[in-house]
Design goal:
The chain has nine helices and no strands. By secondary structure, it is mostly helical.
Length: about 190
Amino acid sequence: MSKPTPTPRERIVAGAADMISRRGLNATSIREMAKHARAPLGSTYHYFPEGKQQLATEAVRYTGEWVARVLRRELEAGPVAGLRAFLGLWRKIVVDSDFRAGCPVLAVSIEEPPGDETPEALLAAADVFTTWESLLADSLRAHGAEPDQAAQLATLCVAAVEGTVAMCRAKRSIQPLDHTAEQLRTLILATIKD
């Protein structure tokens, strides 16, 4: 069974996520996001009338849900399998992009927001991180970890992987991800009961 062809709106959102993962949000214009997605600028404004922040928010949510789907599926086999899948997603992105792309959720999170208000994209990033942490923590608890320890280890896993992806890009090496993977796996195995 083949995947359905993405709609023009979905293509724009996926293109924006990829562009943000490479250049960050502040260094990317809506015109560049449209061009990267091979979409007319007019269509981009049709689907995202509020402009760049609306598109960035959708790109963050898109990435968050894509990762969450993989995590949900892989966590059925346990927290080690979920961690392996989480690391595998970022490994593929970093390697396939020749160390040029990382996580658009992180990219949006670390940039200084324009003005005094908290942008929707930043709020969406916080929700995405919370979702990923919750999925990991739930799996850890289901496999015998104490509730507080499960929550703390889930936060450590998400933070470590996100930071390690940035290190891989800077060092142009996958070694930091390998080191992090081994240590997080050891911590999970020491925490779960099965």
